[in-house]
Specification:
The structure is a single chain. With 245 residues, this protein is α/β, with parallel strands linked by helices. It has one domain: Rossmann fold, CATH 3.40.50. The protein is 45% helix and 18% strand. It is built from eight helices and seven strands, in the order E-H-E-H-E-H-E-H-E-H-H-E-H-H-E. A seven-stranded parallel β-sheet has the order 3-2-1-4-5-6-7, sandwiched between helices. It binds nicotinamide-adenine-dinucleotide. The site of nicotinamide-adenine-dinucleotide (NAD) has 28 residues, from helix 1. Belongs to the short-chain dehydrogenases/reductases (SDR) family. Its EC number is 1.1.1.100. It comes from Bordetella ansorpii. Keywords: Oxidoreductase.
């Protein structure tokens, strides 16, 4: 039911995890993919794996905390593909620290990557976005519930929720803007957390398993697709029901 044939998706944080799973899913349904990530080596490896779908893949080594990098990456993507249909912004970090142990530099680094990067990309991509396109931003369960020892992360994700709703107003009716709030998803980002609290988190997840990157990719692809043509300014929570417990 979903086709991204002749469409281009720019996926940030595309070298692994949720970004890479989304790139695979959308490429499998016909999308041309531009993969952006700060990890150049992993990016090249990811692009090679994406080649199996037979579509064009562009790699964009870039740091989303640099507005110049974001501007350049969008220009390169537009030059190669002529325009962008979807921005899926997954790049982010998840450092653990209590507020009392968070230095000014720690706080600012997180805000630069997780929040400023969102602004830089969403600003840069606007002129390149084709009519009928969409933006999907990654928030988190932490934005809704708070998260012990991740206050800076939760604060940035909360800001992304209100930013996405505001941007949805600015870009309507030409482009839809939505957010996805994953719960506990097994990627490298949560390896330590799952090592420490995996069993406890599983016990409070009604669907009885941790989420996979593919679970989130499905929600993102849905929001980019015509099946979500009347959805904008919305947040889709994907967490196996953990929010209920
Ligand atoms: P991940 O660590 O597997 O992947 C994140 C990617 O972002 C990596 O490839 C990394 O190199 C890239 N990245 C980091 N800093 C960057 C920068 N400055 N510029 C460009 N790229 C950068 O993480 P994931 O689990 O796939 O998470 C993807 C998104 O989903 C993140 O925004 C994360 O906050 C959000 N999220 C994840 C979970 C989870 O449980 N995994 C839960 C809620 C929200």
């Amino acid at each position: 039911m979903i086709s991204f044939q002749n469409q281009t998706v720019l996926v940030t944080g595309g070298a692994m995890g949720i970004g890479l799973a989304t790139a695979h899913l959308m490429a499998r349904h016909g999308a041309r993919v531009a993969l952006l990530d700060v990890d150049g080596a992993r990016l090249a490896h990811a692009a090679e794996a994406l080649g199996v779908h037979g579509n064009e893949v562009l790699i964009l080594p870039a740091d989303v905390s640099s507005s110049a990098d974001c501007d350049r990456a969008v220009r390169q993507c537009q030059a190669r593909f002529g325009g962008i249909d979807h921005l899926v912004h997954c790049a982010g970090i998840y450092p653990e620290a209590l507020v009392k142990d968070t230095s000014d530099a720690d706080w600012q680094r997180l805000m630069h990557i997780n929040l400023n990067g969102t602004f830089y990309l969403c600003r840069a991509v606007q002129p390149a976005l084709r009519d009928g396109g969409s933006v999907v931003l990654l928030a988190s369960l932490a934005a809704h519930r708070g998260s012990h020892a991740h206050a800076a992360y939760a604060a940035a994700k909360g800001a992304i929720l209100s930013f996405s709703r505001s941007l949805a107003l600015e870009l309507a009716p030409r482009v839809r803007v939505n957010a996805v709030s994953p719960g506990i998803i097994a990627t490298s980002m949560t390896r330590d957390l799952l090592g420490q609290k995996g069993a406890q988190l599983l016990a409070s997840t009604p669907l009885g398993r941790h989420g996979s990157a593919e679970d989130i990719a499905g929600a993102i692809a849905f929001l980019c697709s015509p099946l979500a043509a009347f959805i904008t300014g919305e947040t889709l929570q994907v967490n196996g029901g953990i929010y209920l417990s």
